Amino acid sequence: MPRTKSAKKQLRQSRARTQNNRMQRSRLRSAIKKARTAAKGPDAERAYAEAAKLLDRAGRKNIVHHNTANRQKSRLAKLIRPA
Fold it and tell me: Is there a contact between 65 and 59 (Cβ–Cβ < 8 Å)?
């Protein structure tokens, strides 16, 4: 356990950031799953737009690597748009 005042503050900040990142990652995964299941339905475009928005944000904030976010967006787009 931290002893100094600054180390205690750092622990609090770290826990808060971890919780926020976990929440963002969970929302992102849910949106991706929703887009995958809606890929053949009428609301596919809306689900893709939401997932793409969350992927862009997650990539920007280093919740996931930006290349991973771009790759997932590309694969979702390929699923949704007919060949």
Answer: yes
